[in-house]
Amino acid sequence: MNAKKLKKYLPLTEATYYIMLVLVEPLHGYGVMQKVEQISQGIVKIGPGTLYGAFSSLEKEGLIEMVSEEQRRKCYQLTDKGRQVLVGQIDRLEIMSANGLPVRKHLVNTLDNGE
Amino acid sequence: MENKTIRKFKWFWAWQDEAEEDWLREMSKEGYHLVKIGFPTIYTFETGQAKDYVYRLDYRSYYKMEKEDYLQLFRDSGWEYVEEMAGWHYFRQQSRRDEDLEIFTDAESKIGKYQRLLTFLGILALPQVIFITTLGDPPPYEWFSPIRFIIVLIFLLYVYAIIKILMRINQLKRI
């Protein structure tokens, strides 16, 4: 798939980014909520209303797919298209972070001096 | 002992979902717990122990959803499904001091809820526009008929509701 088509999904929202990130392996909804909270160090919590909406649109766009069903819970995983989008997002985040870190250092220094 | 039920009539407009959530929570603190909602908006409560239930409302029309998957997600994260009324889904969970209980955890998905509601209101308003502008009166097409007047009033209410919801969406966007 070409880069232009992938670009329309970017940037992902923070919630969507984390949902896709944990779906590199198959997980059901509640598993996604728990794992996202855990790896984001409690910063990102995903409510069921938000997750249901994200699952529906990600599945509709072909970025995730149902791979199995466990006790009436559907397990989803990234598709190839989803993996490509996620790589694109991570690249963007890397640039954001590379731009931000030196500025952060400067900001923290000036804040310290001010006190 | 069997629990007693009471009924209360209360009206909330479509843009007052948060006020409704707050009201239901206050009721639960007084020991009235929502059982069902009849049309037009008669709330049946079960009387019991006072609890601090946080209520949350989602708006979703049935034909577009897989209800079992939907409810499973809510159940797994501790939400009890109380009632569905005209596309509104009522959930509750006992409040915990250390945690904000939300079913929508970002602005985008909260906006999504109001957009679904807008779509529905838009579809409902459409026949009225057609009625007002073209049909509805027998010849010789008097412009000021009582029916037309009532329909125009209802239509204006729709417009007001749509504006209120758009304002809510705008407010969420600014956060």
Notes on the structure:
The complex is a heterodimer of chains A (115) and B (175). By secondary structure, chain A is α+β, with helices and mostly antiparallel strands. Chain A has helices at residues 3-7, 14-22, 29-39, 48-60, 80-114, and strands at residues 27-28, 64-70, 73-78. The longest helix of chain A has 35 residues, at 80-114. The mean pLDDT of chain A is 94. Chain B has 175 residues and is an alpha+beta fold. Chain B has 2 domains: 5-94, no CATH class; 107-174. Helices cover 45% and strands 22% of the residues of chain B. In chain B, the strands form 2 sheets. A 3-stranded antiparallel sheet of chain B has the order 1-3-2. A 3-stranded antiparallel sheet of chain B has the order 4-6-5. Chain B starts with a strand and ends with a helix.
In the sheet with the most strands of chain A, the strands line up as 1-3-2
CATH H-level superfamily title of chain A: Winged helix-like DNA-binding domain superfamily/Winged helix DNA-binding domain
Query: How large a portion of the residues of chain A is in β-strands, by DSSP E?
Result: 5-15%
Number of domains of chain B: 2
What number of structural domains do the residues of chain A give? 1
Largest sheet features of chain B: 3 strands, antiparallel
Following the backbone from N to C, one meets helices and strands of chain B in this order, namely: EHEEEHEEHH
Largest sheet of chain A: 3 strands, antiparallel
Oligomer: heterodimer
Task: Give helix and strand order of chain A, one letter per element, not per position.
Answer: HHEHHEEH
